[in-house]
Amino acid sequence: MRKRFGNTFTGILLILFAVALVLWKLDVWNLPLALAGVSTWGLFLAIIMIFAIINNIVELNWGGIFFPIAILCIIFDEALGITQLTPWVVLIVALLLTVAFENLFPKHGGHHHKGFDITVNSDDVKYNHCAEVSTVDSDEQSGYIMYMERFGSATRYVRSKNLSTSDLQCSFGSLSVFFDDVAVPSGTVHINARVSFGELCIYIPRSWKLENKVSVALGDCEDDNRYAPDDQDPVVCVIDGNVSFGNLQITRI
Predict the structure, then answer these.
(1) Three-state secondary structure along 1-29?
(2) Which one is predicted more confidently, 151 or 9?
(3) Fewest CB atoms within 10 A around its CB: which of 46, 92, 121, 169?
(4) Residue 56: is its pLDDT beyond 90?
(5) Where are the domains of the chain?
């Protein structure tokens, strides 16, 4: 529901911006004084930043909110009277606010380790330490697994006999997750992927039927499209979430 509302609102806003741009170029409508000194490319970039902010507000993706705001401050620094703060101060502030809000308002925090068959140990996780923040939550009874990586890189191997839902979050780092050794008794697995200024690689069995519902704002979502069903009832893998200023790579193995 939130995603549909965000897409509808963004679509209407872009239409209004397009109409305003045509009227401006035809001298039917004059720009407000605060925008008069901004170049056409600056206005175009500002529209993209507003588009990104709206999409990320819907998903509460903090990095995708604060950094576009910082870029807007840089574009309109003279009109706002903040030239002494641009560009580096506002960018550093955006980074600090992103980290702070991700710690204060984590997307998921109600799951705890249960042990069971979803394992995360020295054999299943490979780290590249760089003062990163890594979080792992799992609950085998509900079939839930969550990996979060910030300011670092890691490779995760999921081991589960009852997988149903997975939350993957990557900010300012890289995260690779392998789902090739799991069982999905329900026949459907939901993966929520949230990428902000990072790279997330998801590896799934090529026999799984993929439904890609990821929304992308100033980022990229790639799928190798190597679907090879091996039975009449394949596992359905639904991947949703959002990518902003980052990359999501879905690979079948």
Answers:
(1) CHHHHHHHHHHHHHHHHHHHHHHHHCCCC
(2) 151
(3) 121
(4) no
(5) 2-104, 125-252
